[in-house]
Amino acid sequence: MDRYVGTDVHAASCTIAIVGPSGRKLGSQVVETNGRAVVEAIRAIPKPRHLCMEEGTQSARLYEVLSPHVQELVVAGVSESRGPKSDARDAFGLAEALRIGAITTLVFKAPGRFARLRELGRTYSMLARDVVRTQNRLKSLYRSRGVATPGKSVYSASGREEFLTKLPVPARTAAIRTAGRTRAAPARRPTGRPPRQGAERPRVGCARRVHGMHPETAT
Q1: Contacts of 196 (CB under 8 A, 6+ apart)
Q2: Percentage of the chain with pLDDT > 70?
Q3: Which residue, of 59, 92, 147, 205, has the fewest CB within 10 Å?
Q4: What gap in Å lies between CA 29 and CA 87, rounded to an integer?
Q5: Is the overall model pTM greater than 0.85, yes or no?
Q6: Can you say how many angstroms the Cα of residue 91 is from the centroid of all Cα atoms in its chain?
Q7: What is the pLDDT of residues 133-165, one digit of tens each?
Q8: pLDDT by residue (tens digit) across 62-114?
Q9: Would you call the peptide bond into 215 cis, given omega within 30 degrees of 0 as the criterion?
């Protein structure tokens, strides 16, 4: 008899809920979020096991750890939760959604495949967000002193000196320090060959042509 397992994962604990093929709730438990404890809990469930978890900080690691112990493992995109918040309720909801095929957003997590491509994309996105936040912080600093900063010249080395002279002396150190962090922007096309995993995929070529897509993200 198939078992459909939903897991609600948090940093310290993981709620595991089991649903039978008819939709009957067979039980739930809370275990510590570490590889050994979760594996032992999953292996105690009779086969065949179908497991579902939501995308999150722990999902990639748990996918690698749990894949050998289940017949199916699905990582679902995070959905909006309505009603009272409960870890057990969320876990049972994932198990039931997997049973009836109601999961609409799947997240690709196969270990070893496209790993470098995935990490490059994640790293670029993280750095880009950090730089945008720093740029906004720099412009906010100038606005608080009544200095308009149209365009992007305030970020360049040549324009920076001109804008600094418009600030009171006590505020210049903060502006210099903040401006220095904007230099981390990955603005140049990466050198060398792109990851082979991405180069072999026709969809990567399409991504390179998307407006606003940075070459490193696309490759």
Answers
A1: none
A2: 79
A3: 205
A4: 10
A5: no
A6: 20
A7: 988 999 999 999 898 888 888 888 778 888 888
A8: 998 999 999 999 999 887 766 677 899 999 999 999 999 998 888 876 666 66
A9: no
How far is the C-alpha of 187 from the C-alpha of 128, rounded, in Å?
9
Nearest residue to 106 via CA among 70, 67, 72, 75: 75
Share in percent of the chain as helix, strand, coil (round to 5): 50, 15, 35
Q: SS3 sequence, 116-139?
A: HHHHHHHHHHHHHHHHHHHHHHHH
pLDDT digits (tens, 9 = 90+) for 160-205: 888 888 889 888 889 888 887 776 544 444 444 445 555 555 555 5
Residue 4: which of 33, 24, 30, 29 has the closest Cα?
A: 24
Cα three-residue angle 105-107-109, rounded to 5 degrees: 160
